[in-house]
Amino acid sequence: MIPDSLVMLMREAEQIVVLTGAGISAESGIPTFRQALTGLWAQYDPTELATPEAFRRNPQLVWDWYAWRREMVAAASPNPGHFALVEMEHHARQFRLITQNVDGLHARAGNNHIIELHGSLSRVCCEQHRHPADSWDDSAERPPRCRICDSLLRPDVVWFGEALPAKALEQAFAAARAAALFLTIGTSGLVQPAASLPLEAAQAGAILVEVNPEPTPLSSRMDYILPGPSGTILPALVRAVWPD
Ligand code: OAD
């Protein structure tokens, strides 16, 4: 299932860089975004829930939707795909994990070098000045207000039309350019700028690998495609590359 040449390349890679998307958390029971029927964007309209305009129009609806997602994630656990990436980090000479996911499951599994491109469900900040809030009480007013400036609290995630956190973006592109081997796992490759990271890596000479049960717009650019669910493929890959 895992080509011998890929096993050798992974063993010898000076730096392995991984980009993950919602697909890696699918086997933890967290819905992806774009899958027909089950994806969040098949059931909910992103323009009503994941834009600054939506928050201005109906802050309580947006706050409650993210609270629901936060609870769903809290009740979920990392799956074998997440744990395989912890093993990979442990064995690789150098390792960087870039994620578009806001679910925090990579950190809960035990990875250390995580670059979060789209923020995190576990963090909340205020709308106006991005003051972080460590705790909040939403039993009275939803969303609650910032204790410092009184503007509304919001999830610290990137919404459509918003810029990605500059430092994370810079670190992600630097990691991509330094990669000997770049794995793209469980992402549809449709959202920029994350989708251009593998191409940036390839331009700088990296070998590209995709793990996904479905083909994506990035598939034609890959050196290796490992078709299948990441919860099966990644543990098999790690076992093949580092058998003990
Ligand atoms: P998508 O929902 O667009 O794509 C999920 C991908 O995971 C698809 O290509 C599936 O084929 C694949 N997949 C499904 N099950 C899988 C499994 N068990 N193992 C491996 N892959 C599997 O999710 P993303 O690409 O993450 O942005 O979406 C990118 C961004 O769009 C998200 O970060 C989010 C969304 O709008 C923001 O919220 C800013």
The end-to-end distance, rounded to whole angstroms, is 19 Å
- Small-molecule binders: 2'-O-acetyl adenosine-5-diphosphoribose
Helix content: 25-40%
Low-confidence stretches: none
Number of strands: 9
How many helical stretches? Answer: 10
Tell me the strand order in the biggest sheet. Answer: 3-2-1-7-8-9
Can you summarize the main beta sheet? Answer: 6 strands, parallel
- The best one-word shape is elongated
Strand content: 15-25%
Radius of gyration: 19 Å
Average pLDDT rating: 96
List the helices and strands in order. Answer: HEHHHHHEHEEEEHEHEEH
Helix/strand/pairing category: alpha/beta
Structure description:
Strands 3-2-1-7-8-9 form a six-stranded parallel beta sheet, with helices on both faces. It has a three-stranded antiparallel beta sheet with strand order 5-4-6, covered by helices on one side. With 244 residues, the protein is of the alpha/beta class. The chain contains ten helices and nine strands. 36% of the residues lie in helices and 18% in strands. It is elongated. 2'-O-acetyl adenosine-5-diphosphoribose (OAD) binds at residues 21-24, 26-27, 32-35, 39, 50, 100, 118, 158, 186-188, 190-191, 211-214, 216, 229-231.
